[in-house]
Amino acid sequence: MKKPKICGIICEYNPFHSGHKYHIDEARKISGADFVIAVMSGNFVQRGEPAIFDKWARTEMALKCGADMVLELPTAYALSSAEYFASGAVDILQKTGIVTHISFGSESFWDNAGVRKLSKIAELTLLGPSVDRKSLDKGASFAAASRNSVVTMPNDILATEYLRAMRRLDAKMEVVPVKRVGEGHVGYGSAMSIRRFLADGKIDEAEKCMPAEAFEILQREIEAGRGPVNAKSFNNIILADLRRLRVEGLRDKPFVSEGLEYKIYSAACESASYEELVSRCTSKRYTSSRIRRIVFASMLGVKRKMLSEPVPYIRVLGMRRSCGRLKDMLDCSAKVPVITSKAKFMRSLEQDGGAMLRALPEKLTCKPSSALSGMASGEFCVNEYDAYAKTAAEFLRVDNNAADLYSLAFKNAKSRVGASELTHPLIFV
């Protein structure tokens, strides 16, 4: 029997728009894929903000607009810089054991020659982009000091990180670049423009940028009081958390260094809102996106060491009913446990830290982790049951926090329930 072609896409869909559908359709066509799997951020995204709609609504949008299955990128990776975001997502794709292709959008490197050029850049900077120390000394941010003069567009930068991660993880997937379409193309927009339209109450303008199926879900969520969600909704929670943690509690948070914990704590004590806090901390050296990631990672309980851990599990958020074969293949080939019931998985960890891992011993290799760029590039060994259970429980705890706190931003008070991670069903379309 011929091995199915399965294409992986790393995404946020914040929210899903016509350009995203174009990407899925083109990736499927170019790769000849039988199935498309999306690895998607959950309730918090790489910009260092809450997603505009929750992960369940965005999963439904993706499935109704072309994806066959949606997997969750754990919050610790999703709420990180491009390097860690890409590393976590690529790790998930390769640990499925079934993904044969990876597709990404690119503004400038969408043909074969472009991919070769990006691959060369990724190979020469495997430990991360080169840093101009003189620029750092003059007060430039790390992002500005490490920016490549060739790779400057957002999707191109992410594409380079995906290729770096593939090299580090020795991920054997065929690359499928797709030329990005968005603002400037008739019938397309960007996720940012849609978020702005919604903030300005211009829902009709948002509709023009979205597939009908996705827009219907967006309308439903707004009418139900479950969005749009924005960072301002977390004003008091963030300030309370930072004031409670104090300087000592901020030191082990991701992206806190050079005494930045003092600046953030001082700003938390002097600020009356989240926006004022970010403004007080932002400078040439510390970008607003870095500050946003720090404060939300802090609120959710993300620890710096989590970014160096291999992906401990694969969580399915939803799938098309016609893709039962895809789920069977995932169950048979995954190199880490596949979660469809979070409550059941957590009970297994509590009762026997290695129960689920022992069911998969032949799939786990004893490949040691690499210290490249501070990120793990190996897998859990079969005799590391206790360490695995501890790591998995920590990632689950953060994702639970993300769901519980995110729901507090809903306008509809009846939707602000806790522990939804243990009860929410998978999305089937």
Short summary:
By secondary structure, the chain is an alpha/beta fold.
Question: What is the element layout, followed by pairings?
Answer:
Layout: E1 6-11, H1 18-31, E2 35-41, E3 44-45, E4 49-50, H2 55-64, E5 69-73, H3 75-78, H4 82-95, E6 101-106, H5 112-124, H6 133-137, H7 142-145, H8 154-169, E7 174-179, H9 191-199, H10 203-207, H11 212-223, H12 235-250, H13 260-270, H14 274-281, H15 288-300, E8 314-319, H16 324-333, E9 338-339, H17 342-351, H18 355-358, H19 385-406, E10 427-428
Parallel strand pairs: 1-2, 1-6, 2-5, 6-7, 8-9, 8-10
Antiparallel strand pairs: 3-4, 5-8
Helix pairs in contact: 2-11, 4-8, 5-8, 12-13, 12-15, 13-14
Describe the structure.
With 429 residues, the chain is α/β, with parallel strands linked by helices. The chain folds into two domains: 1-228 and 310-429, Rossmann fold; 232-306, no CATH class. Helices cover 47% and strands 10% of the residues. It is built from 19 helices and ten strands. Strands 1, 2, 5, 6, 7, 8, 9 and 10 form an eight-stranded mixed β-sheet that branches. Strands 3-4 form a two-stranded antiparallel ribbon. Helix 2 packs antiparallel against helix 11, helix 12 (235-250) packs antiparallel against helix 13 and helix 12 crosses helix 15. The longest helix is centred in the C-terminal third of the chain and has 22 residues, at 385-406. It is globular.
